[in-house]
Write a structure and sequence with these properties.
- The structure is a single chain.
- With about 450 residues, the protein is an alpha/beta fold.
- About 45% of the residues lie in helices and about 15% in strands.
- The strands form 3 sheets. It has a 6-stranded mixed sheet, sandwiched between helices. A 5-stranded parallel sheet has the order 2-3-4-1-5, sandwiched between helices.
- α1 runs parallel beside α2, α5 runs parallel beside α7 and α14 crosses α15.
- It is globular.
- The two termini are about 40 Å apart.
Length: about 450
């Protein structure tokens, strides 16, 4: 399989590999985002031992590590007996490693579950045995909250020991498109609306099969990997998955304000706040506020949205229809997709347009913040701002089969007046994104008014 993107992280790891200093590198990010593949690409053709932790006892995991190290160093006694404790492993590394060597521990949080004091042992092992050696130690994990508390937080015994870290985020639209370079913008947007930038999900979509058939076979079929994916993730990450499930369900059903979520779930507001914080940390949902707000955290206009594309798709088309899907009755769900998928795809297009706007930083100005804006009467799809230079850009996204004409720009300009942000001093720009393109009149107006136009994902050159 072709390794796609992550070049920035891979280059950084390889740069550090070429140095002489000991390295203690932390890699973390949500499940299925591609951390393991990044590690495997890095250690390829390098002296290394890669270990995936699991939910077995600490004794069993040390036994397996003994086999891995014993086989690598041709130590039959170690293969037979394994390590008795972690400090024995660190001592063994110190005694046997003379040149550059990688020891990568994937899914570190599972080791924490087996031994709550493990981070203290890794601290001691690093300080007493590995620091100053040729070792390149990697700790990786999918539980973002646990990786932060155990490896990155100032309260962690490992705080200050790491020499670098990388949070692996989902791929952007353009990066994810590299999985399907033969697809048109429109066709791939359908796939991205379902899978987002998650490599593991994108790989489930078979290129030789229609999207409808992919959905039936690789998502709706109860034996498929993606059918129970959301419930699996919640069970893996959370102690009370039912409450989190009810919160996400409420948001997927347009209960986006805090009070609406509380009423829908029946959860007390103080408890709901804690649950929401966890879901935000897991990158499953996000709080959105008008982009021009000064204090994003305290804004009273904030709404909550599901940030993961597949999670949203699952709550719309899998969760409510599980009884039908269990017995392979797909017709009703397929009808629902025909009726509503276009609206979800249009919403995804808006998010993609915010990403595409970033490509204009050099042509327009450097955006400090990009997002949506709204008040009680009006809404603007995209606004980008730079407070230092007092520059602002207003954008409209049109996912329609019709060509965009001049009234769309006039309406956007009218709404821009309602945005209270440095109104007297600001310099304004306008950009319009369209699925299908623009009328000759709109293109002529764009030339006169210096309006930026984007068809699909490509700028329109005048």
């Amino acid at each position: 399989m072709k390794f796609i993107n992550r070049q920035l992280e891979l280059d950084e790891l390889n740069k550090r590999w070429k140095g002489d200093a000991s390295e203690f590198f932390i890699i973390y990010g949500k499940r299925r985002v591609g951390k393991t593949e990044l590690i495997k690409q890095f250690i390829k053709d390098k002296p290394s031992i890669y270990f995936v932790a699991d939910k077995r006892s600490e004794k069993d995991q040390l036994k397996e590590l003994g086999m891995l190290f014993g086989n690598y160093f041709n130590d039959k006694l170690l293969v037979k007996n394994g390590f008795n404790e972690w400090l024995d492993l660190f001592q063994y590394l110190k005694e046997n490693i003379k040149d550059r060597f990688i020891f990568a521990v994937d899914e570190y949080p599972y080791i924490v579950e087996a031994n709550k004091s493990i981070s203290s042992l890794f601290q001691k092992g690093w300080e007493e045995h590995l620091k100053g050696s040729k070792i390149f130690l990697i700790l990786s994990g999918s539980s973002i909250s646990m990786m932060e508390s155990e490896a990155l937080s100032y309260k962690s015994p490992l705080f200050g020991r790491r020499t670098g870290q990388a949070q692996i985020d989902p791929l952007t639209f353009k990066q994810a498109w590299q999985f399907f370079p033969e697809k048109s913008f429109d066709d791939f947007l359908s796939i991205y609306t379902i899978c987002g930038g998650m490599p593991a999900y994108l790989l489930e979509i078979k290129k030789e099969t229609s999207l409808d058939e992919n959905i039936k076979t690789n998502i709706f079929k109860k034996t498929s990997f993606l059918y129970n994916e959301v419930e699996f993730i919640l069970k893996e990450e959370l102690r009370e998955p039912k409450n989190y499930l009810s919160i996400l369900k409420a948001i997927s059903w347009s209960k986006t304000k805090f009070g609406e979520i509380s009423n829908s779930t029946g959860l007390e507001k103080n408890i709901l706040t804690k649950y929401i914080d966890v879901l935000v940390k897991l990158q499953l949902m996000e709080k959105e506020v008008p982009v021009t707000e000064e204090n994003l955290q305290k804004s009273k206009q904030g709404i909550y949205k599901i940030s993961d594309n597949f999670l949203r798709f699952w709550f719309w088309y899998v969760f409510p229809y599980k009884s039908d899907l269990e017995i392979e009755r797909y017709d009703e769900v397929s009808r629902k997709i025909e009726e509503t998928f276009g609206a979800i795809k249009a919403n995804t297009y808006e998010k993609v347009c915010r990403e595409l706007l970033s490509d204009f930083r050099n042509k327009i100005f450097s955006f400090e913040r990009i997002g949506r804006w709204w008040n009680k009467e009006e809404e603007i799809d995209i606004i980008g701002v730079n407070k230092k230079t007092q520059e602002i850009i207003f954008g409209e996204c049109k996912w329609s089969d019709n060509l965009v004409d001049k009234p769309v720009f006039y309406d956007l300009k009218r709404k821009s007046v309602e945005v209270k942000w440095n109104n007297e001093q600001r310099k304004e720009y306008f950009i319009i994104f369209s699925k299908s393109g623009f009328t000759k009149g709109m293109i002529a107006l764009a030339k006169e008014e210096n309006i930026f136009l984007v068809k699909g994902g490509d700028p329109v050159n005048f």
